[in-house]
Amino acid sequence: MTRLFRLVDVFGTDPLTGNPLAVIADAEGMSGEEMQRMANWLDFAETTFLLRPDDTSVDYRVRIFSRERELPFAGTRRWGAHMPGSKRAGSRKRTAWSSSSPESGW
Questions:
Q1: Which terminal Cβ of the chain has fewer Cβ within 10 Å, N or C?
Q2: Does residue 28 contact residue 53 with C-beta atoms inside 8 Å?
Q3: Is residue 33 annotated as part of the catalytic site, yes or no?
Q4: pLDDT tens by residue, 36-60
């Protein structure tokens, strides 16, 4: 599997001083299991996956995975995913946060 991704330094004032985050720029077509395996392999606290939106009022959807499971929300990761996502999308719509994890309560 080949996927483009960015390593983002969230909330750092200088390079390599923030919270590291992997952002998979085009996760379309990846299953939840594949996302989980990639998050585990990358070995960051969380990895975000950008997907096409289901709703035209948003630029993209985001799914967040830790090494062990999908997360319903993570504030730092939300900002981290937004940075490359907003540059990729080129608009100022909102972001849709989604989770298919049964324990997420969504």
A1: N
A2: no
A3: no
A4: 999 999 999 889 998 888 888 877 7
Identity of residue 71: L
Catalytic residue among 46, 68, 70, 103: 46
What is the C-alpha to C-alpha distance for residues 80 and 65, in angstroms, rounded to an integer?
13
d(CA 96, CA 94): 7
Average of per-residue pLDDT across 29-35: 96
Question: Which structure tokens are listed for 95?
Answer: 């972001």
pLDDT for residue 88 = 47
d(CA 52, CA 48): 13
Q: Can you tell me the mean pLDDT for 79-106?
A: 47
**Residue of 63, 61, 54, 47 lying closest to 101 (CA atoms):** 63
Q: Domain locations in the chain? A: 5-101
Pick the CATH number of 5-101 from 1.20.1070.10, 3.30.420.40, 3.10.310.10, 3.40.50.261: 3.10.310.10
Token pair recorded at residue 17:
């001083």
Predicted structure pTM score: 0.72
